[in-house]
Amino acid sequence: VQIVESGGGLVQPGGSLRLSCAASGFTFSMYVMSWYRQAPGKERELVARIGSAGGSKNYADSVKGRFTISRDNVKNTGYLQMNSLKPEDTAVYYCTLGTKWGQGTQVTVSS
Known about the structure:
mainly beta, 4-stranded antiparallel β-sheet, 7-stranded mixed β-sheet, globular, 11 strands
């Protein structure tokens, strides 16, 4: 069972990144997928969640209208498209599938 996030990096305010969540070793399509983030000194927070079939999506108020969660159950991969990034979006972003967590990917928004 493995979940691997990628796509993080350093971006300027107003920029965009797309995070990917690649899963293997289990049936990806059976699980709700979520993205969480944790900034230094802050509690981990739920950013976005998508149902197993991709039809139900929820977002934290802080990212609504800027982030889009999606998934491709054929490719066993999920995504988080992040636009209009702000410095306060800086955090380690984690993908979860059910109770399984990835190792996280760092996103830094800074000029």
